[in-house]
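DM between two lab members

TW: hey, do you still have the Glycoside hydrolase family 31 protein entry open?
JB: yeah, one sec
JB: this one, 815 aa:
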Amino acid sequence: MAEASNYEVTESVTEQTLESGVQHVNNPVLDLPQIVKKYLQKVIGYQQKENSYLFTDGSATVEVKVVSDEIIRIRLAPHSQFLDDFSYAVSNPDQHVAVYAFQEEEDCYTVSTNTVTCVIHKETFLIAFRDRDGKVINQDHSPMHWEENPDFGGYYVYCTKVAEDQEAFYGLGDKPTHLNLRGKRLTNWNSDTYSFAFDQDPLYRSIPFYIGLSSGEAYGIFFDNTFKTYFDFGAEVHDRTSFWSEGGELQYYYIHGPHMMDVVKRYHSITGTHYLPPLWALGYHQCRWSYYPESKVYELAKGFRSRQIPCDAIYLDIDYMDGYRCFTWNKHYFPDPKKMIKTLADDGFKTVVIIDPGIKVDDNYWVFKEGKENKYFCRRGDDYFMEGHVWPGRCQFPDFTNPEARKWWSGLFKGLVDAGVAGVWNDMNEPAVFGRGTFPNDVRHNYDGYRGSHRKAHNVYGMQMVRATYDGLKKLNHGKRPFTITRAAYAGTQRYSSVWTGDNVATWEHLRLGVLQLQRLSVSGMSFCGTDIGGFSGEPDGELFTRWIQFGVFSPFMRAHSAGDTREREPWSFGPEFEAINKKFIELRYKLLPYIYSVFWEQARYGFPILRPVTMLEQELESNIPREEEFSFGDKILVSPVVNPGQTSKRVYLPKGYWYDYWDQCFHLGGEEVEVATPLDRMPIFIKAGAVIPEFPVMQSVDLRLVNTLKLSVYYADSQVNSFIYEDHGDTFAYEQEIYLEKKMVLIGDKNSLTLNQSIDGLFTERYETYQLYFIGLPFNINRIRIDNKLVEWKSEDGIPVVEVSKDFKNLVVE
Ligand code: GLC
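TW: and the structure you got?
JB:
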């Protein structure tokens, strides 16, 4: 059945067919049998089951469930038989609901919480969501509908909502297109898309979650359906937004705003956040397909240390394995992996290795034998094994939706962990198969006991693989925080892994795309994300690589990677001029680590996205919608990466408030654009006035850090601004037992003084004793500085007043 024609059928519904609820249409494109579309009819009754309300039209049932004060879930059962209530995405389906109420009115029923009201219209079965003031935030355009799927006997399920005239749409994961998805029609089906292009769809991930923003108010829709799903944001018909699926249940969560930050936070509250990564995972990572043999790896490590360019991780791509057999070593290239990894570790490098899902069919290979004996590999509908070619040649593939197979897979990492491997990179897990793309639909999956075909399991296959990887590393590392990275993902994968955007290209267009994709991933719940710095395929010149490194400093995950058929791609590969700038920016990443780490903590603990598009900072301004090249990292640093060759200046919009240029500390009024010089050694970076930014001294890697004093740059503001600094061991889960420090710095400024109050919460003890405070932008001359009521001396460094204080100070006044 042609996908496009299904949609046309949906959209060509007439009033008459709505009345009868049934529509018979001949498919105009293909000569297929008639399709029967059914629409919900008039509501004739309801029933309550705790915080769920069930409404029926006599044949179909719709469940409206209050999940939290701000989240309502809708489910449709065409014949009143709901499917199993099981989700890989949702980790927290039952949250605290303070109060909710049900009411029957003349023409509708309402289910209300303190913040949102869901309205179910009796005559039409149309559903709407209103805020507390009665304003409609989101509403159905047509009643929910479905059609019998002739291919497998299930349903295609559809929901069509009203798209407001100026409504903008965000989210949906890794779509390589403009931030605002208005006018786009998109598909979710995890796909291996080497050298993808602008607007290509689908790519590697399926995140069926979007944010609607209209008249400055935002809401979210999370369509928790793992089948192939589609979204149309006013592409076919300007005033409609539709989402639909080739199977499964029409089940979605309405997530109330009104702020986009609230929506993302609440989306995280149901699908989880990324745990706090090990600190080293936030350093600079160097990857290539592939660094081998061992001598090449040593040479690389030496390349970093001899040039004093910081680096925390070196990656081994597929060539470290014996004939691409997962969990083995090529002993010719790597005769003693344990020794090599130890030598690297002593020099401050972690080793990360790739693991793919394809297991070579080879009866002399222990992993294949174990998988075969225990029936862990996927089978086709006729019971034969699913076989396909990937790097090792003929392969079979574990069914990661089988909990037993996941457990087995988790244990397979023992050898790698014993050898000292610190992190695992899961690739090709869409799953990718050479020649045919992916598995055929008839492959059977366990789906954690809720069995299904590949139609249902395809989009979660990679997620379940990296989940097993995460579980294994966590257990084998005795509770140390694992580091994993995955290419394929479904909503909720952030609980187990970071992601990268896959096989991009060394072009300026791709650099710009990366800026869009990482912002989009971040607001879609996948904040720990990065691009292949420099572009995977093709050859960047020095300028492009350097600009990409600069963007990398503000990418949550910072890794350079390149395909094997390209020239060398290390920070020094493009000559001394570029090397010096690359070094300066990688050092900047390390200086900012305490700030970056604190932003990751906010993500882990509260569900705030790490990258925030400008629209998110000032969503009431429609003029921000086209501003898609700049974003904030956390709430204190705004950046606008340079994404054009030869660009010597850039106009940057600063949101309302006051900002400091990071480079020259010049003060700027926000709410307007500024022209910023962008010679190759600068990218626009602005710090919010009132911020306290912690900085580490330059280090060669996180393990080699020596922090005797923490630098705090205090940016004056004539108002009150709060900053947070988070600190802990950096690699254990002790933070879950409150072994951490959360420092709150409250800055209060006026014309003649600046006060900084610090309160400290938590049980961790830092390794340093003092702070070095730099006061930037003071509008007055200092007469005295008091710390906890004692006068202290200060000095001046390049005109900036500096004072050293005990890390435990409570109150500091500069006047
Ligand atoms: C895929 C990955 C790429 C990797 C290559 C070889 O193309 O996306 O990152 O280097 O496979 O393993």
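TW: got it. The domain at 707-814 is CATH 2.60.40.1180 (Immunoglobulin-like). The two ends are 74 Å apart (CA to CA).
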